[in-house]
Design brief:
3-stranded parallel β-sheet; single chain
Length: 166
């Protein structure tokens, strides 16, 4: 969950209170909500202090709004390195999810497979699984355009949070 505001949580067409109620229902059905940072920036492009603020504010917002405090982060765009994983540990996270990468023996970099419109009903299972992993890695590389677009539109977040995302 990107935790900048409750109104940024899907489904966006609903008022914030309705979104929080929907998230609470999902939780009762076994769906866990974990941190995806406060404003969804590419963490590898931020200064150390800004990465720490993204992670701390996200975790605090999730705890306040929906009681989620598991200490798990899914790095935006799957972008993380040693620095980001270290900062996450320092902010109290005990597990982190990267994107479509190989296992490196670090619980702060567990590989996740994103679900796209073209994903089959049971993703990453069967003979097509290697192709899906390759496609996910390629799509993540293409997400650089999203990051550049975000940089152009994050002026309001800079003003509101003091986080320099550009």
């Amino acid at each position: 969950v990107v935790a900048s505001t409750a109104s940024s949580w899907a489904p966006a067409a609903l008022p914030a209170d309705s979104q929080l109620q929907a998230i609470a229902r999902w939780q009762t059905r076994g769906i866990e909500c974990i941190s995806h940072t406060a404003t969804h920036p590419r963490l590898t492009w931020l200064a150390d202090g800004d990465v720490a603020r993204e992670m701390a504010s996200s975790r605090a917002a999730l705890a306040m709004h929906i009681g989620a405090s598991e200490g798990v982060v899914s790095y935006p765009f799957g972008a993380s390195g040693e620095r980001e994983r270290g900062i996450a540990r320092g902010e109290g996270y005990s597990m982190g999810f990267s994107l479509a990468s190989r296992w490196i023996g670090d619980v702060m970099s567990v590989s996740r497979l994103p679900i796209y419109l073209w994903s089959p009903p049971t993703p990453a299972v069967g003979v097509l699984a290697p192709i899906e992993w390759f496609g996910a890695a390629a799509a993540n590389r293409c997400a650089i355009g999203t990051t550049l677009w975000q940089r152009l539109h994050y002026t309001k977040y800079r003003a509101a949070t003091g986080i320099n995302v550009g």
